[in-house]
Design goal:
The chain has 225 residues and is α/β, with parallel strands linked by helices. It contains 7 helices and 10 strands. It has one domain: Rossmann fold (3-Layer(aba) Sandwich), CATH 3.40.50. A 7-stranded mixed sheet has the order 6-5-4-7-8-10-9. Strands 1-2-3 form a 3-stranded antiparallel sheet.
Length: 225
C-alpha cells in the first residue's frame, strides 16, 4: 500500500487521502475523506444524527469491504449481469464488481458516498452501470438484481431484519446476495431474519492481510433467492 499522495487534495469539501491498494492481482487507486472523526463535529452531521442517528460510516473503507472485494475478485465473471452494492461507501466492492464484469450500480444512503464512489471508479477507469441513493429500510417494488453486494451493513442489530427484507425484495429468482461482516455479534441474527422471508443462507469464514499486512477475519453470508 502506498500513501505518498495523501493530504494534498480537496473533494466534496473534504480534505482527502489517496492510496494505492493491492488486492491479490488487482490494484485500486482509492480516495476518501482524511479524517472521519472531524466530520462528527460538522453541524450537518450533528443535525442528521439528531434526526435519524446518522453517522458518516461511509467515509472510510472498512476491513469487511476488503474481505468482500477479494471474494468478488476471485469469484465468477459477472458477464454483464445486473448487480448492486448496498452501502457502497467509497466504492471498494463496486470497483471489484466492475473489474469482474458485473453491471454494477453503486448505491448508498449518503450522496457524498456516491460522489466518492464515482470519483474512484473514474480514477480506476471503470464503468459503473449507475449510482443510486438507496435506503435498505425501504424494500423495492419489484426484483431487479441477480447479485446484491454489501459490506458491514449489520453493525447494529436493528439493521438485520430490514436488510433481509430488502434483499428478498431486490433479488430475481435464482439471484444471490454476498454480504460480509467482521464477525460482529450484532449481525449474528441476520440468517434467521433472512430465512424468515424465504431466503437460504450459507456462511463462509474469510480472512485477509490486504492492504496493510494486518490480519482481518470475518464472514461472508451467501444468500440465495
Amino acid at each position: 500500500m502506498s500513501d505518498d499522495r495523501k493530504g494534498c487534495e480537496i473533494y466534496c469539501g473534504y480534505a482527502v487521502r489517496r492510496e494505492t491498494w493491492q488486492l491479490g492481482d488487482y490494484r485500486l487507486d482509492l480516495t476518501w475523506p482524511m479524517n472521519i472523526d472531524a466530520m462528527l463535529d460538522l453541524p450537518a452531521v450533528q443535525e442528521r444524527f439528531a434526526r435519524d442517528e446518522y453517522m458518516p460510516y461511509w467515509a472510510q473503507p472498512w476491513p469487511a469491504s476488503v474481505l468482500l472485494a477479494e471474494a468478488v475478485l476471485s469469484g465468477e465473471e459477472g458477464r454483464g449481469r445486473a448487480a448492486v452494492e448496498l452501502g457502497c461507501g467509497v466504492g471498494v466492492v463496486s470497483l471489484a464488481a466492475a473489474m469482474k464484469g458485473w453491471s454494477i450500480t453503486a448505491s448508498d444512503y449518503d450522496e457524498d458516498a456516491i460522489a466518492f464512489a464515482e470519483l474512484n471508479a473514474a480514477r480506476n477507469r471503470l464503468q459503473l452501470a449507475g449510482t443510486a441513493r438507496l435506503d435498505f429500510r425501504l424494500p423495492l417494488d419489484e426484483p431487479v438484481y441477480e447479485r446484491v453486494f454489501g459490506a458491514d451493513l449489520t453493525y447494529e442489530r436493528r439493521n438485520a431484519e430490514p436488510l433481509a427484507r430488502w434483499v428478498a425484495s431486490a433479488l430475481v429468482a435464482g439471484g444471490m446476495a454476498w454480504l460480509s461482516d467482521p464477525n460482529r455479534s450484532a449481525g449474528d441474527g441476520f440468517p434467521e431474519h433472512a430465512e424468515a422471508v424465504g431466503l437460504r443462507v450459507e456462511m463462509e469464514a474469510v480472512e485477509t492481510t490486504a492492504p496493510t499486512g494486518l490480519l482481518h477475519r470475518g464472514r461472508i453470508w451467501r444468500v440465495y433467492r
